[in-house]
Amino acid sequence: MQAAQWTYLTDDMYLLDLQQTIDSSDYFVFQDHLKSVLMAFTRDAYVKGHALQVNGAVHCPSSGEEFLTPDFQSDDTGGDNIDNRVPPNGVLPFSGLVMYMAPLAYLYADPVEIYYVFRELYVRYWSKLNAIRTERGTILPLCKLFEDLIVRSSPAAVFHLINIGLKPLDIAFPWIQSAFSGMLDIDQVLFLWDRIIGYDSLELVAILAAALFHFRANELEFVNTREEADDLFAELIDIPVITLLQDYIFGLPKASS
To answer: Organism's domain of life (predicted)?
Structure first.
């Protein structure tokens, strides 16, 4: 396999993110599986060809070239020699990547199964959480959806936070970008991801963020610091997300016409 044949400059950066993940007691037993999945992912050119957007790559110099040239043109696939792209998948390492795959280790014993499920999830969904685009389901529209929802459902809490210099999105952005991996218990993360696949929509991530915010709205009106706000949500790691989503959606005030 290419993962065993070649070593890339980006490997150590990917492995740093892996180390941060397996430092958790939830995932350290899956170190070997997650490492093999991660290394295979970095070398899979399928990702660049099928993801909505990848975050760039570096071209290795051919014979006679002296410098590496950064390439962030995600839609430019013509004329590139895929073998000269580092990493071949076009996804430069970033903190949190391994957390998109780690919960799957609780579903599949075979790393091959983990890999193909994770790759498809990344191509269809997680790449959108790391793409600065305007298409529906990408990170910017999801942030806008979150803000619109909390203004409708929790206006007093929003007003209070803004008055003390806290932006609600600053609190919720890590939840949205991570699809709640590492923010909630693993079983609740998987329940959420199951619904994302079922409805084929990442908007559920923004809706859940708004639902959590609404759940703590009364307490948020009395916080004075970011640390106090974060502490309120740290206690909700095991909250049943499906029940919370249902209660929030069915109780959401109708938008005025």
So the answer is: Eukaryota
What phi and psi values does residue 184 have, to the nearest 5 degrees?
Answer: -125, 165
Rounded-to-integer distance, Cα 184 and Cα 237, Å: 4
Q: Residue 61: how many CA atoms within 13 Å on its side-chain side?
A: 6
Q: Which residues contact 58 (CB under 8 A, 6 or more apart)?
A: 9, 68, 69, 70, 71, 85, 86, 92
39, 69, 65, 87: CA torsion to nearest 10: 10
Number of helical H runs and strand E runs in the chain: 13, 3
pLDDT tens-digit series, residues 8-50: 667 888 889 999 999 999 999 999 999 999 999 988 888 888 7
Element (H, E) at 85: strand 85-86
> Residue 236 and residue 230: Cα distance in Å, rounded?
10
